[in-house]
Amino acid sequence: MNVLIVSQYFWPETFRINDLAEGLMERGHSVTVLTGKPNYPGGALFPGYGLFRPVRQEYKGAKVIRVPLVTRGNGRGRRLALNYLSFAAFASLLGPVLLRGKVDVVFVFEPSPVTVGLPGIVMKRVKRAPLMFWVQDLWPESIAAASTMDSEKVLAWVGRVVRYIYRRSDKVLVQSRGFINSVEKWGARPDDVLYYPNWAEALYKPARPEEDAPERRELPDGFRVVFAGNIGAAQSFETILAAARKLQDRPEIHWVILGEGRQRKWVQEQIGKLGLEGRVHLLGRRPVEDMPRYFALADALLVSLKRDLIFSLTIPGKVQSYLACGRPVIAAIDGEGARVVEEAGCGNTAAAEDADALANAVLDMYEAEPEEREEMGRRARAYFEEHFEREKLFDRLEEWMDELIGGKR
């Protein structure tokens, strides 16, 4: 098949769509990616990129076509809106000009913004190919939940855009079953909605760092609760810090944060104000290929989100990565993500934004026997292999694409 991926984000930015492109090529398909200039998450263009260059690149055999956009800057307000709208506009205008050749199926990756669907629809019409739209983030609910938009007129406009896109998609894929009601409410036809969860890249697997591994020297001695990912408002670091403060009488419990984000400076300041130096450790971002080694040295892996209906409907992407690495999980989240951890029997859960519950979940994990934690890790990996294993999910996607284009394998 000739697959066209439309995504505002792509390598060298770190998103799961990179692995999807690679996986399709591993199976013999031809992949072209229509994307923007890389600037996430820092807000500035990556070194080597300009507004109008390069236009064409290659990523592990995939053809990459890049269009201009307004960089996201500080990731707020009008600048972020311009970032979203500029990619949609330039990709819609330049995509048909820059992209030559046959396309069998258009695949749109939508972690945010939903406007990425607009150039997808344009390419569907120009190439006369069916459109698959993979929903990672629910709009307009997510922007309302994140408090980035409070205008009813703007939200109503976004709702009309969402409805327009869903109704013109041949298949709407959702990363969580909790998304189904929303996408149907906003115009997706029930028969065309498919559950397609995230997986974890093949590099995520149980690891055994050597005794002299550099990761061992970076991490504090003691019981390690490791959080990996974005340091932002959605992750409710207020709750993490409050829970850490409640466990100050347990100096052997350490909270290790691997990642960067908009709230990094605030978290650093709070660590000082709350007297959590030496207990909460901000190590910064690490290469994705190194993460399994850090995870292997964790006694528990932490995922957290704010208390909000929209967040309760999603399965945070890090859950699959945690499970794949076979470590116990502590989930301070509601809804679908907590259900996965409980169903897998691989850790402890706490209600979102409940610092007391999170502190108790960590304390229970700390007091558990090492053998019990190891068994949680084994159950995590087993659940991942049954529900989120990469090749199984690629098989499923390949079958759906074949059915959509009327081909037979």
Structural summary, described in words:
The protein is of the alpha/beta class and 409 residues long. It folds into two domains: 2-198 and 389-405, Rossmann fold (3-Layer(aba) Sandwich); 214-387, Rossmann fold (3-Layer(aba) Sandwich). Helices cover 42% and strands 17% of the residues. It is built from 16 helices and 14 strands. Strand 10, helix 9 (264-273) and strand 11 form a beta-alpha-beta unit. Helix 12 (317-324) packs across helix 15 (370-387). The mean pLDDT is 94.
Number of helices: 16
Count of individual domains: 2
**Low-confidence region ranges:** none
- Give the CATH H-level superfamily of the largest domain: Glycogen Phosphorylase B
Q: Tell me roughly what share of residues is in helical segments.
A: 40-55%
Please give the CATH architecture of the largest domain.
3-Layer(aba) Sandwich
The profile of the biggest β sheet is:
8 strands, mixed
What share of residues are in beta strands?
15-25%
CATH class of the largest domain: Alpha Beta
Mean residue pLDDT: 94
Anisotropy-based shape: globular
Count of strand segments: 14
Domain Glycosyl transferase family: 220-381
Protein name: Glycosyltransferase
GO molecular function, one term: glycosyltransferase activity
Keywords: Glycosyltransferase, Membrane, Transferase, Transmembrane, Transmembrane helix
